[in-house]
Write a structure and sequence with these properties.
Length: 213
């Protein structure tokens, strides 16, 4: 549908899954949700978005794709070394750290949250670090310019500095099964190929939870 000359495309996909544990919770169990009065299988939106981002890297022609990492200093430092191979990685890390602090992307010390940055943005900040640019607004302009395709799709939120936020152009919902599910348990055993002949027992055994939806 269109609203105020804007196009909204709604995609609903149905995929049959065999017995599996597509998306685990903190206990290792398949994620579920109570919906329509019954317990249903669930796969979180983050799991789908991660798979979509990997698809861009594997099958897309885009060179400007995003990296979501705590190692953002190392990522920019590597771009600095690409600019000038005579710079040691230690000096590049120092330059990258300074430019990221100056831009507000990180504070002093360790990076405490994952940061989503595109290849083009990293190269621009690396050039700024190489040129010793320290003006915050100028650096933030570089950090926001030319967002990667997956950042443009899924957005970026920086709680410490909202000026670095990127509004997403898509929304991905949690996937839930079309029917009620009941979690089942698979008891497994594994044979040790190098076990002594007089030991007929399993080398490993246990249970894993699964459902099909």
């Amino acid at each position: 549908m269109t609203t105020e000359q804007r196009l909204f495309l709604d995609i609903h996909a149905i995929q049959t899954l065999p017995p599996s544990n597509m998306n685990r919770d903190d206990t290792g169990s398949p994620k579920t949700a109570q919906y329509g009065g019954v317990r249903r299988s669930r796969v979180s939106s983050q799991a789908w978005k991660k798979a979509m981002r990997e698809y861009f890297n594997t099958h897309g022609d885009q060179s400007n794709v995003g990296i979501r990492t705590k190692e953002i200093v190392r990522y920019v430092a590597d771009k600095i070394v690409e600019l000038d191979s005579s710079i040691s990685i230690e000096d590049a890390l120092e330059k990258a750290d300074k430019v990221l602090i100056a831009s507000g992307i990180k504070k002093k010390g360790e990076v405490k949250a994952l940061y989503f940055m595109g290849d083009s943005q990293a190269k621009k900040l690396a050039q700024a670090a190489y040129d010793n640019i320290t003006h915050k607004k100028e650096l933030q302009k570089l950090a926001n310019a030319d967002p990667a395709i997956d950042i443009a799709l899924f957005g970026r939120m920086v709680a410490e500095d909202p000026t670095l936020n990127e509004d997403s152009s898509s929304q991905v919902a949690h996937a839930i099964s079309t029917h009620a599910v009941q979690t089942e348990f698979d008891f497994f055993t594994a044979v040790d190929d190098l076990a002594p002949e007089d030991n007929a027992g399993a080398g490993m055994l246990g249970t894993v939870e699964f459902n099909s939806s």
